[in-house]
Amino acid sequence: MNDFNTSSQVCSKRSVALASFERPIRAVVIGASGGIGNALVWALAQNNKVKCVQALSRAPITQNQLSVQSDIVDLGNENSIAASANRVANRIGEIDLIIVASGFLHDGSDFQPEKSLRALNTETLQRAFTINTIGPLLVAKHFLPLLNRESKSVFAALSARVGSIEDNRLGGWYGYRASKAALNMSIRNLAIELTRTHPFAICLALHPGTVDTKLSRPFARSVRHASLHDPVSCANNLLDVIDTVSLKNTGGFYAYDGTQIPY
């Protein structure tokens, strides 16, 4: 799992062919109303290798692509996730690509990343783990059985570099860091279990970089302009990584440029 590596330069110049998938792709994007999720939906919808896209979010997204179908899912409600999985299965059958693009860092007002222990409170911590860890795990519970068993399929969840325990040099952001670290461990667990039933399936934790979305905008002023990505470029970079990985990379944690991040 340690020898996959590409560069951001390669990712940005090479079109996302998704050629590593052997058949037309049936894709599911969860968190489709967010900045990155929405960009992923449209990037997939415009790709000739993609047969259809199920765009799932708390509220339906506006769409005018015949290959895109919008539906509702609430990551804080397992019944909603199970019902959504059943509807997707009835509509498209097997799935080749699942991307969980949801995430919670702040809500723009009351809930903000903690700078110290004094800022911790139960409600914020529970919300961070519900959206960043528990939700993706329950998605895996109900959607992974639908994965194609005959050829390459991918389950990817957006993590964050700040969820790396080894890479933590600054502290703070307790709920976000801890919930993303828990997500990373969950991805490793899923990768191990999935090999027993889906021999060609790959599980990934992906760091999208700092992207110009509502989630990261309040903190973007501290990021160099060259390091701030627009959602479209981010989506293409993530799909490029997904296209490049193989079974030897399953359970890994990778950045948008293909470099591996330590857990």
Q: Quick one: overall form?
A: globular
Largest sheet: 7 strands, parallel
Stretches with pLDDT under 50, minimum 5 residues: 1-14
Kindly report how far apart the N and C termini lie: 13 Å
Order of helices and strands: HEHEEHEHEHEEEHE
Annotate the secondary structure layout:
Blueprint: H1 8-13, E1 25-30, H2 35-45, E2 50-57, E3 68-72, H3 78-92, E4 97-100, H4 122-143, E5 153-158, H5 174-194, E6 201-207, E7 210-211, E8 228-229, H6 231-244, E9 252-255
Parallel strand pairs: 1-2, 1-4, 2-3, 4-5, 5-6, 6-9, 7-8
Helix pairs in contact: 2-6, 3-4, 4-5
Describe what this molecule looks like in 3D.
The protein is of the alpha/beta class and 263 residues long. Helix content is 34%, strand content 17%. It has a single domain (8-255), classed as NAD(P)-binding Rossmann-like Domain (Rossmann fold). The protein has helices at 8-13, 35-45, 78-92, 122-143, 174-194, 231-244; strands at 25-30, 50-57, 68-72, 97-100, 153-158, 201-207, 210-211, 228-229, 252-255. A seven-stranded parallel sheet has the order 3-2-1-4-5-6-9, with helices on both faces. It has a two-stranded parallel sheet with strand order 7-8.
